[in-house]
Structures are given as C-alpha cells and as structure tokens.
Amino acid sequence: MATANGSSAALEEVEALRQQLESLQTTLRKKEAELETVAPYNRTYGRTMVATVLESDSQGLSLVGKTIRVGGWVKTGREAGAGAFAFLEVNDGSCFQNIQVMVEKAVAEEVGGLKSLTPTSTCVLIEGVLAETPEGTKQKVELKATKVVHLGSTDPAEYPLAKKKQSFEFLREKAHLRPRTNTIGAVARIRNALAYATHRFFQEQGFLYVHTPIVTASDCEGAGEMFQVTTLLSKVDEEPEVPPPSPEELAALRSQVAAQGEAVKAAKTAAAANKEDKEAAAKSKAEVGTLLKLKEQLTKAEEAARNAGGLPRTADGKVDYSKDFFSKPSYLTVSGQLNGEYYACALSNIYTFGPTFRAENSHTARHLAEFWMIEPEMAFCDLADDMQCAEDYVRFCCRHILDNCRPDLEFINGMIDKGAIARLEQVANSPFKRVSYTEAVELLEGVVASGEKKFEYPVSWGIDLQSEHERYLTEEIFKQPIIVYNYPKEIKAFYMRLNDDGKTVAAMDVLVPKVGELVGGSQREDRLDVLTQRIAESGMPMEPYAAYLDLRKYGTVPHSGFGLGFERLILFATGLDNIRDVIPFPRWPGNAAY
Amino acid sequence: MATANGSSAALEEVEALRQQLESLQTTLRKKEAELETVAPYNRTYGRTMVATVLESDSQGLSLVGKTIRVGGWVKTGREAGAGAFAFLEVNDGSCFQNIQVMVEKAVAEEVGGLKSLTPTSTCVLIEGVLAETPEGTKQKVELKATKVVHLGSTDPAEYPLAKKKQSFEFLREKAHLRPRTNTIGAVARIRNALAYATHRFFQEQGFLYVHTPIVTASDCEGAGEMFQVTTLLSKVDEEPEVPPPSPEELAALRSQVAAQGEAVKAAKTAAAANKEDKEAAAKSKAEVGTLLKLKEQLTKAEEAARNAGGLPRTADGKVDYSKDFFSKPSYLTVSGQLNGEYYACALSNIYTFGPTFRAENSHTARHLAEFWMIEPEMAFCDLADDMQCAEDYVRFCCRHILDNCRPDLEFINGMIDKGAIARLEQVANSPFKRVSYTEAVELLEGVVASGEKKFEYPVSWGIDLQSEHERYLTEEIFKQPIIVYNYPKEIKAFYMRLNDDGKTVAAMDVLVPKVGELVGGSQREDRLDVLTQRIAESGMPMEPYAAYLDLRKYGTVPHSGFGLGFERLILFATGLDNIRDVIPFPRWPGNAAY
Q1: Which ipTM score applies to this complex?
Q2: Which residues form the WHEP-TRS domain (chains A, B) (predicted)?
Q3: Does B547 lie at the interface with A, CB-CB under 8 angstroms?
C-alpha cells in the first residue's frame, strides 16, 4: 500500500537536523554546567556535585582557581607528609569517580585533626580551591581544602564495611550501607540509566505508561506461585472478641434450643386448642421469643467456635474471605499483561513498568521473589512488529548506558566481567537474527548429531528449550542476540495466537549471550472462537476470563506484546552473577529485611 | 561563600541557546512527522496514528491527498445520505480528538455493509485518502475510505457502554472497557504525561531513580494499617498432611508415654541391679527405644493438634511465621522513605516512584488501598532546599501537561471542572508562598475571631491542621499554593529534625487549591543522640531502627525529602472528584477485581 513515506532527500535533511540538534544540546549542557556549579537543592550547603567537576568537558580544568564546596563520603583517606596533610578520595554518588581533596593539618584542626577525616565512610563537606594536578595524574584537578564545613564521623573500629574487599553475600546483609561501595554504586547508576532509557524509548515512540495493579483478586494465573495479601492474619494472635465456647457449652446450648423448641410446640398447641385463651396465646408468643433468643445465642456460639483459631470461617469450615479486606482471596500480581491488554485495546500502544512477584521457593542466583518488569502492548501489531519493538528497545537501552554510564561500565569491565562493554556494543550495533523454533531445533539436533555438543536435556521438535539450549544458540551457534519465534502451541500459554499451521503459536523469545532469555512475547489470540477453544482445551474455567474475552467480543484488534525482566537486563548489562546484587533491596525465601 | 556562578552575559547566552534548541526541536518533530506517518510497530498493518494527522503543525493539511490507514475504535457512527454512506468518528487513544472517516456503501459491502461499521466500540482499520473538509468544520481533514482492512465488530445490544452517558460508578465496574470513554482516556494520557514529567524533572536534576521494596518485614511503621503478605493461608483450606488427633487420642498418647516412662525406669533399675545381665540391659535399651518412638509420635501429634486450623503454630499457640515465605511477618510497604534515605546517604540525590499501600477500611473519594507515591531524598539538603524542590517539581508537572495535554485538559475544563486550566496555569506561573505553622494558625485564629469563618475543628497552636483549615488557607486566605513549615513536634513523626526552639520540627506541607495537602516532607533528624531520644520518647523499640540509626552513626549528613501521592496530583490536575477514577484499576475495601 501507499504510505506517506518521504524521499531520501527528506531523510537526509532530517538526519542533518538531528545532528545539529545533538551538537546544540551538548553545547548547552556544557554552558549550563559552567554557569552554575552548585547542585540544585543543595544551595544552603552550596555543594557542587563531583560529576559537575570531573565529568565536565574540561574534566574540571575550566573551574581551576574557583572556590567550591564538595560533599560526600570518604572512600579512602591517608595522611601524608609526616602528618602535615591528608589526601581524601571523596565520592558523592553523582559519578563513579572520586574527587581528590587535599587537607592541610591547620584546616582540620577545628574538627579534631586529620585523623577524624580519613576513615572510610566519613561524611565531609569541604570548601576549597580547585587546583590543577601534576601532569600524569589520573585526574586533571583536585580540591585544596580551606574549610571543613560539615563532618559526619565514622569510627573505623565499628564501621562494618571498613575493610577494602567484602563478599557480595556479606554486603547483602548490609543493604543499607552497600550503595557506598564501588560495585553497588555503579549498579545503582546503571539501573537508573536503564530505567530512564525505558521510559524515554517508549515515550518517544508515543506509548502511554500504564500503572497496572499490584494486588489482584483475579486468579487467572493459578494461585500456586502467588503471594496472598490479607488483613485476616493480624487478628489471629489476638484475644478473640467472643471467646470460643467449649464443646460441652455448645452441646448444652443445642439441647436448650431443642428443649425450647418442644416448649414452643406445646405452647402453640395449647393456644391453638382455645383461640379465645389470651393467656395461652401470650405464653406461646413468649416461648417463641425465648426460642429466637436462644437460637441467636447458638448461632453466635457456633460462629465463635468456627473462628476459634483466629481465622473467620464459613459454615463448611473454609476460611471466610468475605471478611478479608478485598472480600475475596487476593494476591500480588505475577504479570500486568492482561491489564495492559485492556488499555492497549482502547489507547493503542502502552507499556507497564512495575513490580511483579513469584512465591517460588527458589534460592538460585537467577530468581527473586520481587522484581520489576516492563510489559509493552500494542494494537494493530503482529509478531513481526512485536519482535522489532523488542529488538529496538533492548538496543536503545544498551546504547543509552554506553553513552551515559561509561566510567561505571569501565569499572565493571575491569573488575567484574571483561566482556561487558564488548557485549553491549555488539547488541547496540547489530540487528538481531530471527530464527524459527523449528530451525533452532534443527540446528541443535545438528550439533548433537555431529558430536559437537552434548546437552543434559535431549533436543527434539516439541521440547521446551532449556537454558543450556538457549545459551548455546546465542553464544555458540550465532554468537549474537537472536529471536526464536513460532513455538509449538503445547509449550506456550493459551493466549498466544494460533498460527495457520495449527501446531505453532506466534510467540517469540529474545535470547542474548550471558543471560539467555531476556524477553518473551507473543501476538495475542484476537479471535473469540479460537481463544474460547484454547481456554477450554487447557482445562481452565471460562468465568475468570470474562473481561479478557470481552476484548475479543467488542471491537477485537490484532495485538501483541512482550515482557522483559528488568533485573535480567541489568545482569546482562553488568555481567554480575547474582540477581540479588542488581536490585537495591532483594527479596528471596526468608529475606525481606529493610 | 564564593561559587562559580556566571555573569548575566553568560546567562543570556545560555537562554539564547535554549531557545534555539527548542525551535530546532520543533522543526525536527514536524519534519519527522511528515517523513514517516506509519506508527512504529504498526508497520505490518501500515497504521497512521490519529495524533500524527490531527496534532501535526498543519492539522493534517500537509497530508491531504495521501493514502493512509487509520485504525481505532468507533466513538460514534451514523449513516447519512439515505444509506449511501456513513460517518465514523474514530479514536485510537493517541490523542483526545477523533478522526472523521467517510465510508461509501460500496466500500463497506465486503464487510457486511455500513451497519457493521457504525456501532460504538467497533474496531476498524480503514485505508483511505485524506481530504480537506469544508471551511467551518471543526477539523481541517477527514479520511475518505477506500477499503476496510480490519473489522472487529461490536453488537450494540450487548456492549455495556453503548449508551452515551454512564456514571463513573458504573464505569468502575467495567474497568476493562472504561479507557475507551472520553474522560478515562483523557485521564490516562494526563496520568502518563505526569509520570513522564516526574522522571524527566528528577533525571534532569541529576537524581537517581531507586526502586525501594514493596514487600517488607521491617515493622517500623506499626502494622495496624498494613497488608500482610503470606503463603501460609494457601494451605489452610487444604486437607492437612497429618490429620490432627482428637483430644482423646492425644490424652491416650500422653498416658502411653507416661506408662512407657515407668517401664523404662523399671527396666533400667533391673539392668542396674545386675550389670552382668545382658538380657536386662537389652530390655532396658529396647524400652528406651520404644519411649523415644512414642515421644516422637506425641510431638508430631501435638504439632498436628496445634496446626489443626491449617496454620502452623508455635508451642505457645501463636502463628509460626518461621514457616512463612519470608520467615517473618511481612507487609506491603506504606512508604519507601527509610529505604530512600539509605540510598541518599550514599548516592546523594535520589527519588522513588512506586506503589504504596494502606489497609485502612476507608470508603471515601480520597483514599485508595493501593496508590503510587513519589519520594525524593537529598543529601546536604535542608528544609529550604526541600521546599524549593517540591515547588519546582509540582510546577514543572503543571507546565508539562499544559504543554503536552492541551486537548485533554480542554475537554476536562469544559465537562468536568471549569477551573482546571486556570488552576494549572496559576501553579505553573506563580511561586508558592511560605507560611510558618505559627503564622498559619494566627491567620486562622484571626478569621475565626472576626467571625469571617467558622470551622468544625477549633484552631489553636498545637493542633494538627484539618483539611478544612488547609483548604481555607490556600483557597480563601492566599488564593494560591502555599507551603506551611515548622510544625509542632508533637503532631509530626519522630524522624523530623528538631528545630532549635525545641518545640517545632523542620517539616513542611504543600497545600494547593481543590486538593489541600499535596506534598508532605521534612528535613530528617541527622543527629544520632537527638534521634535516639526522639525514638525513646515516642515509646517505640530501638531495635527495628538499627539500620536507620547506622546512617547517623557512620558518616551522618544533613538530608531532607518529601512524599507526593501521585493520584492526588492527578486529582489536582483534572479536578475529578473521586480518586478511584484517576488510577487504571482502583483498589478499595471489597474491590480488587481485574
């Protein structure tokens, strides 16, 4: 069909404009930095961020001779010149680099001498004059202190991270202090950059950010792996409002009710025998009143007996969720996809970015009980467009951190994973290969047949690809990111669109070196009849999917989406081994401290 | 002190650069729009977003004569010309405006005639030629259909939102379809814009986005209003693995153990009497073995009896949380502040933006059980800088939606709240007044004394300002946003920094017309001794605050922060009355559907 796409001349014009814009932005950024060195909202303390000095175009040289204040935490401090002065490496988190501060003895006098400044994690705000360092020094400038404006001491004998090298395991137990370390600080900046890159990518493409709910009573995904959210347990360990009756008390009450029933019957018979007898009528009425009161007592006692364990129960002994906060069993979400579809089928292109939960009793380095997920969903979008979106998004993120987190990545590349930068550059620069599931299986069968590779799990058409297969495909066979698509319907979810072959669905996974599966997505089944049949075939009840089916009933639209586990992306970007180190406060079985 | 601030000439240069940049950006945007009309990731379907046409600089005129495809949901459709053609108002969510599509009878033939296109919420993808509309028409262009590429029918007899006007209450019950309505669609776009404005504001100021945890076992805030997160309830309604014993069985087991204890004693005595008697020794050993087995049986039976209600219990009858997923009672977060402080006291300036929870049994139009909150936290920041940050942030948000959501705001202004745009403009353009708590109380006492105003709650120094007081201050006395600061310490949290007067703390609330309190913040108590005393005074245990106290122990820093309820900001921006209508899937007591 004819679209309004432009000529190559117009394309070139736009490209030129883009370059002009970029260079103008850079100029503006530099000018702004020179104009105002004090950090926003640090005006009272007059602090200049370390990044403003060291990451400026001149690496601080344009500020030489100026008086500024630098504040942060001492990474390392040492006395020199036989106690005449001290060098402090100060880090404020604004960039990976520390700024070197030189403090003479006299300047430190007022705050207890040089020794009070040097311990690791001491907080300082130091006013000084920026000076050029001798040729050959790592940094071009250092601060010569004239005044210690703030001192927050740290006793090195007590500070738990005083030692240079700490294991990641140990740092996890000090999650409130670990962002002061090189690695966790770098991860925090990279995580921030990837989060902002996510928003920028989707916003610039016209997607709407939708907040899908965290707590949900919809039980579409099977409650097995879900956390329950409740207010019922808070009362379990309290004294009950109505003390539960003993079995004897209950039995006694029941006999009373039975006896009173007899009394009522007798009184009624007497009253019926002589309708004129007002006294008999009154007695009958009184006996009925007593019976009602007794029955009410019994009902309450039975309820109290049922609730004896502290949990409200229905008459059949099950937990009475009508008494819970949401009047139904409610859970923490495992995916915002269904909610995302509701919004995409009204507002076209949307994305979610929020926390997601799994109550799996998993202690591996790859699983968290709480993690963040990005789930875009697009109307009028098929699998090909879905794959393109996933590819563009991942590559945008890689490019973004290469451009914005260079010093952090260089540290990571040097200390943690020698391949980190090369991997990011490869992903940012090369298109992802598309490989159908069928082709992928044939390739794997080939290397098995030739004896080139042995897998723990055997390979044949129909299997769910294991991590070992996925990583072999991306790391060994293709040596680059790939997208595997069109999976057998048996191994994929009911909502994925059935292909015309009747045996595969329009699903795709993005596989990348180091991590394996990074993205999983699909075109959604938009045909009401096919979807209904797929739900029925999978043996699930239809009722919980009423709203989901409504989308196919009222103005159905071809649509697609995918999910990306945010921490997986950070693992990929940093090469860290344990997912618990790429989220500020990790949660896993037995661990929800802080 | 001397900072490196620039001269006014440099200021002017930067301002000029900024303007140049902005105009260049606008030019680029327009060129790009002309160049490529097909939406990203809608390429297979070749769809052009309605915003690309109607919100372009020429309002679509530059595309007249081109063939494009437009897809979305029919807002209204009507046949005209005695059934010769139909007009469809099509909305795709990319902007508030609908595009008008004119379909001739012959074009609709293939898809069942014009009647199949006109029902509200029908999904269509229509190829056509963009044509100029007659002078005086609301929009400059319409699409003359040449082909219906996709049709997703809607049966108007069944579609629940077929009627024009629906109450907000009714729409809440159809949360999966309500984004197709004008108001909820506009709110979704405004919400998206405010979320992106939030990220842009803080990122451009160099703040790091930190994901604070959702599930937490830290009970710092008192568990009264918190939701509990658990995996214990999932087993309550299942058959127990070990059936609980009856009291008789338990009693019988206990007697058996006691009897066996006697038997062991007797056998040991016999064996001791004759140490040579191997048979007696063997018997004694056997009796001990039997006793151990019986005791194990008893322990298991007692445990089964304790767990009879399905919940694991400790020996004292309390819930045994060591068996819960996180090995401790765990809750949904009510604030990320403490976690944010941990990161600010390492990385300087950070912000959170995530879901937050309250298990309050509140059914008002102002409360949600699940809502989103923004919480910045800044090192080397006092209350003055904190107030400035809150003001700049709120004003940036208002400016951003005025610039980016004009048609949505105009609809809101016309249909929902006549003052919405004026309110946003006032906030965007005028600095917020600072008023100390003491002054504020004096002003309120003044209007009460003069008889100008009666309040439900009496006013005097020391009271917690009520909503009626807050709104009177901002709406009647100042008629603009204000910041009230330095509150009595008795009515504020323990962690707020004690002022030198000993009776107020460095707290602040931003009050705005229509909503009242929008932001609450404070400088945090950074002195270990004062903080310890404040915790002790408030009668709380010290132990849960160990990590929080560590921040003051190791390199303490003056720092401040605030919290803004995101839905409050949207209420303020849209003038909607009920907070349940400004979040996609609202949660309140009894409601967690979808």
Answers
A1: 0.92
A2: 249-312
A3: yes
